[in-house]
Design goal:
The complex is a heterodimer of chains A (191) and B (471). Chain A has 191 residues and is an alpha/beta fold. Chain A contains 7 helices and 6 strands; from the N terminus they run βαβββαββααααα. Chain B is built from 15 helices and 21 strands.
Chain lengths: 191, 471
């Protein structure tokens, strides 16, 4: 099994952290992992991407060629990705930040209101990335939720692991609810 | 060690700079008054002379230091060896415990450089921030504090490189990290390191250029600069890994090679590899080489067998001058003698090239029956490996040659491949640099696949060339 994941948005939205947490969770599960990120000169606000490849075998080429999972949290990145990718991939986006193209064909558009939930639960949007990651993990089972929770505990040791773990749990719940309805209907689901 | 000091009284201007400059007070004024009306200088304490050459350097031409005749020189060397024989010979291979707990880590390319440098025994880092090498400077500033080494953020790259050269003479393993624009500034210091045989490691995390170009984007545009950028163009050792594990292993190797051959070693990385995070296996013990020091031995080449000379450090009590000017085996400047110059330059090349068999390190894939060989370096090797494997599945007889040690270039190996290979393909993240090196070595069709767009090469693009011949 080999899964290619691409996180895309603006610098400052925590895409690098999402990629790193997911990659570390996969290393706990003894998978082969390659993770890379790219950003523009301005760091905050410019187009920023983070890629993770998780595989059972050695990874020859460590960058995403044909994504299985796309996560996009800004309009610019959404517009760019939608024009470049086929419909095979599951596409996660945040409807609070993006006006998605509902006419997109294929099964995979999944709307996760991560930023809205972050403000509702924590009063600030900076936990949106962990909520989004929770939803991605719940819906794709690319890694085990316990692995991610463990990694969050290690990585945010000096900051606030509890809040981030709670955000991740909220994401898991939203993802779990989303998986109750057929994926094809997800695009038209009211939020 | 002493020289024959001669003073041409006709050229003496009576400036007294020789008295002022000599740290050993070798010169004195005599009571004799010369034709110009001032006291003549004399060599009062010739045995105190350390041949530092300061008198000759400051004098307007009256003082000259001449090498002793060989038999007299041998006598003095023997005396010197006895004098310093209380000192201990040191250096060579040893095994040390890893600083990191042995095990599997998940780290980015730049983090791997930091940890591997410490594992190799690096105790000094000087650098100036530049994207995409920043994490190395940042990591060293933190880790040096933890391990007791020295970290300096210099005022620029020129200062950085000279600081590590000084630290190296003080006996420390030292390195700096930079990217294209900074690497260009370091070239002068690197040629001093060539000439004065100073071991050091320079990590060049390449980015898209020329000049400031695209600071955050990867490229392999310094492939020729790493070899030929410095004044003098003597043989360089240049390494280019393709994975984070290799970055870790080859950083240690870079330090070992620098210490063994007393030469600057360039470790290439790029804006992609520096931020790529992968698993790295760290073993419990690290094999490291420390520069050899034999008390009393001359500190510079040429050596008769092209071996690497003994390297003392400041404070060992050896009388050594480290200079960028042409010099003899004791470091004494010899700035006009054509034989000394030629012998030295040939020696600097030979001390590396006579070990070139040890310096061949290539990854090879499907080369036994390959008709087309992809020659790739560093990160491009990852794209090429994917493309070659896919092309094989389609029945194409293609193979991959990826020299981990880029220079000295593995000429012999690539010539051997010509038995089956009739076309070499060189994909590069540049306008085409290494393609010229390859075509210099082989009388076969050599095709350049250049991509200087600041992106890593999509392996499907290489596959398309291998299958359809379209780039």
């Amino acid at each position: 099994m080999k899964k290619e994941v691409l996180f895309s948005g603006k610098g400052g939205q925590g895409l690098g952290v999402m990629g790193r947490i997911l990659a570390l969770a996969a290393t706990i599960e003894e998978k082969e992992v390659a993770s890379s990120s790219s950003y523009g000169g301005e760091v905050t606000g410019g187009l920023s991407q983070s890629e993770v490849i998780i595989s059972d075998e050695a990874i020859d080429f460590p960058s995403v060629l044909d994504p299985d999972i796309l996560v996009t949290v800004s309009q610019d990145s959404y517009d760019q990705l939608i024009s470049h990718t086929d419909c095979r991939a599951l596409l996660f986006c945040d409807p609070g930040l993006i006006d998605p193209d509902h006419n997109r064909e294929g099964p995979g558009l999944i709307l996760i209101p991560a930023a809205e939930q972050a403000v509702e639960n924590f009063g600030k949007s900076q936990f949106a990335n962990m909520i989004m990651l929770g939803a991605v993990v719940a819906l794709t089972q690319i890694v085990r939720p316990e692995s991610v929770a463990q990694v969050i505990g290690q990585e945010f040791k000096a900051k606030s692991p509890e809040l981030n773990q709670r955000a991740f749990a909220i994401g898991l719940r939203i993802g779990g609810e989303a998986s109750q309805c057929p994926v094809g209907d997800l695009a038209n689901r009211e939020h | 060690m002493p020289r024959r000091i001669s003073i041409n009284h006709d050229l003496c201007r009576g400036c007294n700079l020789c008295l002022e400059m000599c740290p050993k007070q070798v010169f004195q004024e005599s009571s004799e008054i010369g034709a110009a009306g001032f006291r003549l200088k004399q060599v009062a304490l010739p045995d105190e002379c350390t041949a530092c050459g300061l008198c000759e350097l400051y004098c307007a031409g009256a003082i000259s230091l001449e090498p002793l005749p060989p038999e007299e020189f041998a006598d003095i060397m023997a005396q010197e060896e006895r004098r310093t024989s209380t000192g201990q010979r040191r250096g060579g291979w040893k095994e040390v415990d890893s600083l990191l707990e042995p095990g599997r880590y998940f780290m980015a390319g730049n983090e791997a450089v930091v940890e591997a440098a410490l594992a190799a025994g690096c105790e000094f880092f000087a650098g100036y921030p530049i994207t995409p090498a920043n994490e190395i400077l940042e990591g060293m500033s933190r880790r040096m504090g933890e391990t007791g080494g020295r970290f300096i953020q210099a005022e620029d790259e020129i200062a950085s490189v000279y600081m590590i050269l000084g630290a190296s003479w003080a006996g420390l393993k030292a390195f700096t990290a930079t990217s294209g624009p900074g690497f260009a500034l370091m070239q002068e210091g690197l040629s001093l390191a060539d000439m004065a045989e100073i071991p050091c490691v320079i990590v060049n995390v390449q980015r898209a250029g020329p000049s400031t170009g695209q600071a955050t984007r990867p490229a392999a545009m310094d492939m020729r600069e790493a070899r030929y950028g410095s004044h003098g163009g003597v043989q360089r050792i240049v390494l280019y890994p393709d994975s984070v594990q290799e970055v870790f292993d080859m950083t240690i190797e870079a330090f070992n090679l620098a210490e063994r051959f007393r030469t600057p070693v360039i470790l290439l990385s790029d804006g992609y590899l520096s931020h790529l995070a992968e698993k790295v296996a760290v073993s419990g013990c690290v094999k490291v080489f420390d520069r050899i020091y034999v008390p009393g031995r001359p500190a510079f080449g040429p050596t008769s067998d092209s071996s690497v000379p003994s390297m003392p450090r400041f404070g060992d009590g050896e009388n050594v001058v480290a200079t960028g000017s042409t010099h003899d085996v004791s470091g004494k400047r010899s700035t006009t003698n054509p034989t000394v110059q030629e012998n030295l330059v040939f020696y600097l090349n030979r001390k590396i090239l006579e070990h070139r068999e040890e310096l061949v390190d290539c990854e090879e894939l499907f080369l036994d029956d390959a008709e087309t060989a992809v020659v790739a370096f560093g990160t491009v090797g990852r794209s090429a490996k994917w493309a070659v494997k896919e092309a094989r599945k389609l029945g194409r007889r293609v193979g991959l040659l990826r020299p981990r040690i880029v220079y000295p270039f593995p000429s012999q190996r690539i010539k051997e491949l010509c038995r089956t290979v009739n076309q070499f393909v060189v994909p590069e993240m540049s306008q085409g640099q290494m393609v010229h090196v390859v075509s210099e070595k082989v009388a076969r069709d050599v095709v350049s696949l250049p991509q200087p767009n600041g992106q890593i090469i999509d392996p499907r693009r290489i596959l398309k060339y291998l299958v359809e011949g379209v780039w």
